[in-house]
Fold this protein.
Amino acid sequence: MILGAKLAPPTPADLDRWREADRLARSKRLARFRERMAAENVQAYFGVRRENTRYLTGLDLGEGEEKVSGVSGQFFISPDEVVVLADSRYTIQAREECPDARIENVYNDLLEMWPKMIASLAGPVKRIGMEAGFVSHATWGRLAAASPDVEFVPAEGWIEDLRQTKEAAELERVASSCAVADAALERLLPQIRPGVTEHELALALEWEMRTNGAEALAFGVACLAGERAALPHGSPTTREVAAGEVLLFDFGAQVAGYRSDMTRTLFIGEPAALDLKIYQLVADAQDAAFAALDAAVAAGEHPINRDIDKAARDVIVAAGYGEQFGHGLGHGIGLATHELPSLGRLAVKAPLPSPTVFSVEPGIYLDGQTGVRIEDLVTFDPATRRLERITLFPREVTVVGG
C-alpha cells in the first residue's frame, strides 16, 4: 500500500475543474443508467434522493435541503430526456446547473401534475422505476392511484450501484476532503488538554475544517472521552477530558460535494495499559485488512467484501474481543458518507468494484471502560495495481495534553 500525496486545500481552479469534469461525465453516467433501465424493462425512472439528483442531473441541493425543498430536485429519467422538478425557489439554480434537462415548475401540485408529467415523456410509459427506499408509502400510493395504467417497479440501489465505481475527479475530491480533515486534527492537537470538554473540542475541530477548505461537514463531529469512547456513534457532551484516558474523534469534511470520514483514538497523557493493548489489537486488525487488500491488488484481483472484513475480524476474535466489534469493517464514501461498497460480515456477498474508495475501520468497545477505533479511507483499483491510503494523519500512538 502507498500513502496518498499530501494535498493543499482546494483552490477555485480545482472547484471549476471538478465542476467541468462532472458536466462531461454526466452523459456517460446517464448512458450507463439507461442500460440498467432497459435491462429492467422500465420506460422511465422517478428519483428523489438528493445524492442521485446531483449525480445524474447536476442540481446540487445542500445537506438537509430536501427537508424544505418539497419536490424540488426530484427528477425523471427517460430513454432520451432528463426532467428536473423545481418550484420558484429553485428554478434559476436548476437552469444553471442542469442545462441539458427540461425544468418543470412543480410546487405543491405534483399529484395533480403527475399524469401530465408521465404523458409528456416520449413513448408509451408502462413501467416506472421508483426509488422505493426513499419514496414514502403514502406518496407511492397516491401517485399510483393517479396513474392506474402505469406499473411502479421498486428500484433499490440502481443509481447507487453506479456511484460506487468512481471517476478520477471523484477520487480527487474524496482525497481533498481527507486532506482538509487531516490538517484540521493536526491544528487541533495543541488545544487538547485535561479540563476541556468534548463539546468544545468538537466545535473547534468543526471550525478548523470549515475555515480551511471544507464547504460543510460530512457529518456531525464525534468527540468521546474515556468510557464514552465505547459508544461507536456518540455525540459530544459537556464532559471534561481527563488525564489517563482515550479521546476518540470520528469526523469528516466535505469538498465540492464529496466527503471524507476518519477516526483517530488519541491518549490524554500517560496511556493506560488496557488502552494501549486494545489500540495495538485494533491496529493489527486494520493491518490484516490492508494486507489482504494488498495481496489482491498485487494479483489484479477483486476480493469478496466479506473476506476483507473477516481478515480484520479474525484478529480481534482470536484475542477474545469478537463480541466487542459489532459493526462492519468499512463502507464506501462519496456524495454520501455511507454508500456502496459495504465491507461487513453481513454485507451482500460481492467482489469489490473498482476504481472505488472505502473505509477500513475496525474497533473494540468495552462498555463502561474504553473504546478504540482507527479509520482510514483507501482508494482501490486492481486494474492499475493501486491501493492507496488517503487518510494521512498518523496511525501511531499519539499522546496529547500531557
In short: Residues 168-400 form a domain with the Creatine Amidinohydrolase fold (CATH 3.90.230.10).
